[in-house]
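[Automated response] Your request has been received and processed.

Submitted sequence:
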Amino acid sequence: MSRIDYSVWDHIEVSDDEDATHPNVNTASLFRWRHQARVERTEAFRKKGAELEEALAESKHELTRAHEKAGELAAGSSKARDDIERLKREEREWEEKVAAHRREEKKTPWNADTLCRGGFSKIAVINDVKTESVGEETETFMSFEKRYEKDVKRFAAMRSWDDSEEYLSDNPHLLCAETFNLLMMMCVDLEVLKKRESLEQTAHQAVVMRFISRLAKALKVDPRACFRRFFSKMKAADQRQLDTFADELECFKEEVRSAAKSPAWKAMDEAQRELEKEEERLEVFESLPEEMQRCFDRKDVRMLQEVIGRMEPAEARAHMKRCVKAGFWVPGAKVDGGDDDGGSDKEEDDA
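Generated structure:
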């Protein structure tokens, strides 16, 4: 007995007598209209399924958030229990709707568009898959930061849904995890500096990136393929969506405040500041005349005084002022057993 299920062939929207039409009917136009109507029905059905899947994913996320909030509140909070029960009911309702839509999809008759589809509609080139180490991830992020930091800062300043959507459309390379991570770091820096207004704006844009990432994960697509759907929902002023976004924004700002207080961040911030100072020192050193560079390399104060003496006074003052600022020269320091380097001090004093 055959175990192959041939029932899928019982309902196919393909007629053997489609060529037989009334002489007064334009056959090509008729078939074209029928095909267009069928394509529109299929697209509407597919869009409905995607919206149901998205709603189910959002419901699961809200339920998870409710459990987290319940853990933060006092044990046995009646409001927290009521919210969790309500969200569980909503989740079951969405699951039933998704299941019903999938059953309906299986019953949909095949047609000329769905009967024959390529088995390989896309090509995936897979190289040796390697899990990035922490060092490699850091290197990737630093490379992204160096290349696109200005673009991310411009995005952080966007204050409307339309502007943000248009900017991401023009800069699709920002639709990635590195953008969110960079915005997160910017937020922590702003929290440390107590710049509340700038923090509020940057945090808002970071949460935008987080929502787009979650939507892409729920739909199993690239963020570039679904970011417009997120903005459409936000611009439609769906109160439930806006409330969810506002709650997420508050949670994110709390994450930022916690990160800013952590010893790890303080140590990293100090290391970053020291690295920036070293880069500034190197930049100043490389811009000095070669004779002055040799003086600092050899730590020869008398040679430095001679080199400065041969320069124009204004040029000497400018160079020494930059050296003092970079930490190469300390005015009034004692050298050679207590002798004061008066000549060089004079140049700095004149500056």
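Summary generated for your ticket: The longest strand covers residues 334-335. Confidence is low (pLDDT under 50) at residues 118-131, 335-351.
If you did not submit this request, please reply to this message.
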